[in-house]
Amino acid sequence: MGTLRIAVDDEPVFTWEGDEAAVANLREIFPQHAAQAGMTARAFAAQAMRNAPTLLKREDTRQTVMAAITWCVLDLDTRNPEHPGKIADYIGCTSFDVNIRLREDGGYDVEMIRAVRRYDA
């Protein structure tokens, strides 16, 4: 089982733990929820990322926003030639620390702070 520790502008906001089955479930269910809101999964996740500080504080949106952010982070490329693919491909044996940096123009950047495989710890 792996872990995603998510921060926004260097402030920890939530931790997600899961394995390959949890990733598969999220990949299946989240796009359906986004479609019910009239959006693609990518657009819904981007909106959640941009508005995370506000939406994560609200009980009525927190779980959905956490799912959106998690879905987006799992779908990111590792950007590591020794471990090619998506973060989701390694979640079974790796923990990731990720920071979402909000920009003044309303956009965001996702920074991989650290990735630790279980057998590296």
What does this protein look like?
- The chain is of the alpha+beta class and 121 residues long.
- The protein contains 4 helices and 4 strands, in the order E-E-H-H-H-H-E-E.
- It has helices spanning 20-36, 41-50, 52-55, 62-74; strands at residues 2-8, 11-18, 94-102, 108-117.
- A hairpin with a 2-residue loop joins strand 1 and strand 2 (11-18).
- The mean pLDDT is 93.
Tally of strands: 4
What is the radius of gyration?
A: 14 Å
Counting structural domains, the number is 1
Number of helices: 4
Q: What percentage of residues falls in helices of 4 or more residues?
A: 25-40%
Distance between the termini: 14 Å
Helix and strand composition category: alpha+beta
Describe the structure using short key phrases.
121 residues, 4-stranded mixed β-sheet, 4 strands, 36% helix, alpha+beta, globular
Topology:
Layout: E1 2-8, E2 11-18, H1 20-36, H2 41-50, H3 52-55, H4 62-74, E3 94-102, E4 108-117
Parallel strand pairs: 1-3
Antiparallel strand pairs: 1-2, 3-4
Summarize it:
This protein is of the alpha+beta class and 121 residues long. It has one domain (2-120).
